[in-house]
């Protein structure tokens, strides 16, 4: 007697290790931790703190909310990072003239110094990662990541 074919359920079909969002998350976490390990001890920074410094290094004058939106980090993580960076005098916060509830953030000279010293470490780590791909593959990766980022907005 032939056994009836049972249809697989979505739960049975989902192999986490093959699931693209999971793989992207693992890759992102692994790369972030590897880079962070290189500068955490020397600069006493967490990943969110470094990201705040990196964003403000390119776009001074943002609020914590705008940094959270730009980085897609959790607002609480950004607020904690900003508070620590203000306490350590790496970020300056001033009240917005139009809305005193908003804090406009910028790097202090200490923050700019940290940014200038860590940026080469981050870029060198990126180069080491991308060295496993040839030039064509790097271009393809860049194109594909761009398309996936756009598509992800609509999910």
Output the keywords.
single chain, 155 residues, mainly alpha, Arc Repressor Mutant, subunit A, two-stranded antiparallel ribbon, globular
Short description:
With 155 residues, the protein is mostly helical. It has helices at residues 10-13, 20-43, 47-58, 64-71, 75-87, 109-130, 135-153; strands at residues 91-95, 103-107. The model has no long low-confidence stretch (mean pLDDT 92).
Please characterize this protein's 3D structure.
This protein is mainly α and 155 residues long. The chain has a single domain (19-153), classed as Orthogonal Bundle (Arc Repressor Mutant, subunit A), CATH 1.10.10. The chain contains seven helices and two strands; from the N terminus they run H-H-H-H-H-E-E-H-H. It has a two-stranded antiparallel sheet. Strand 1 (91-95) and strand 2 form a beta hairpin. Helix 2 crosses helix 6 (109-130) and helix 3 (47-58) packs across helix 6. The longest helix has 24 residues, at 20-43. The model has no long low-confidence stretch (mean pLDDT 92).
Q: Tell me how many strands there are.
A: 2
CATH superfamily: Winged helix-like DNA-binding domain superfamily/Winged helix DNA-binding domain
What is the third-level CATH name, the topology? Arc Repressor Mutant, subunit A
Q: What is the total number of structural domains?
A: 1
Q: Which range does the strand content fall in?
A: 5-15%
Report on the biggest sheet.
Answer: 2 strands, antiparallel
- As laid out across the biggest beta sheet, the strand order is 1-2
* Mean pLDDT metric: 92
> What's the CATH class, please?
Mainly Alpha
Tell me the span between the first and last alpha carbons. 45 Å
